[in-house]
Structures are given as C-alpha cells and as structure tokens.
Design brief:
With about 160 residues, the chain is mostly helical. It has four helices and no strands. The chain has one domain. The longest helix has about 70 residues.
C-alpha cells in the first residue's frame, strides 16, 4: 500500500509539471503573438512531449502497468495547480519573457534611428527640390505672361 501512495503522489507531481510546462507555452504566447497554425504546431509538439513523459514515467515507476489512480493523480495535480498556482505563474513568466522583448524593441529602435533620420532628411531635400521646380515653373509662367502683355502693348502702339 505504501508503494501505491508513493506512485499516486508522484503522479500528482507529474500532473503539476505538465500543467506548468503548458503555462510556459501560454506565457510565451501572451508575449509573442502567434498565428493559429503556429499555435497548433506548438500544441501538437507539447502533447507529443507530454505523452512521452507520461509513458516514460509509467514505464519507469510501474513497469508499464497502467493504473487508473495514476491518471487520476495526474488529473488531480493538474487541476489543483491550474486553479491555484498557475495564473500567478503565467503572469510571472510573461513578465520575465517581456524583458528580452522590450530590450529587442529598444535596441532595434536605436539601430533604426539613423535610417529613419536619413529618410527625414531625404524627404526634406525632395520637398525643397519640388519647391524649386515649382518656383522655376511659376517664374517661367510669369515671364511668359509678361512677354504676352508686352507684345499686346506693342501691337496696340503699332496700330
């Protein structure tokens, strides 16, 4: 009987570890946005790894004999951890995982500052070039008007 109680407690711990591993995945998802396909692939890999862990634990501790109290212990451990510790664990991990993301955003902003600054300078030069073209066009247009007016005056004087 002592061996079965020990196996039951180990299965509770295994359920807790499985739910905490999924919480790590959930924290990563909250920090880094994923598409549905990426989430599906992550879930598939998680469940394959969880199946291997459960199988190896059953094989190692109980010679591969599946007993219902082991599965009940895993479910109980997952439920207890999911209701009590898991929400705080996810928030803590999300906070920890945000630190590199914030650092990466800060560093890319600093590195791209020169590129953005060059764009601003190029836009200013382009605007000034456009203004110069406009002023040249307007000067040309004014000079044509002045010439027309002079020609009209000459014609009137001749007549």
């Amino acid at each position: 009987m002592h061996f079965e109680v020990q196996l039951f407690l180990q299965s509770i711990c295994l359920g807790v570890l499985l739910i905490l591993a999924y919480d790590v995945l959930a924290a990563l998802r909250s920090v880094i946005p994923h598409g549905t396909l990426a989430e599906a692939c992550e879930d598939l890999l998680y469940w394959l790894a969880a199946a291997l862990v459960v199988f190896s634990a059953l094989y190692r501790t109980n010679q591969g004999i599946m007993r219902s109290f082991l599965f009940a212990g895993m479910i109980l451990g997952a439920i207890l951890c999911g209701r009590t510790f898991s929400p705080f664990f996810i928030k803590f991990l999300a906070l920890i995982f945000r630190i590199p993301v914030i650092f990466a955003k800060f560093s890319t902003d600093r590195l791209l500052f020169l590129v953005k600054r060059c764009r601003i300078i190029l836009c200013k030069f382009a605007d000034s070039a456009d203004r110069n073209k406009k002023t040249c066009f307007l000067r040309l247009k004014r000079s044509r008007r002045v010439e027309r007016i002079k020609k009209r005056k000459r014609k009137k004087n001749i007549e």
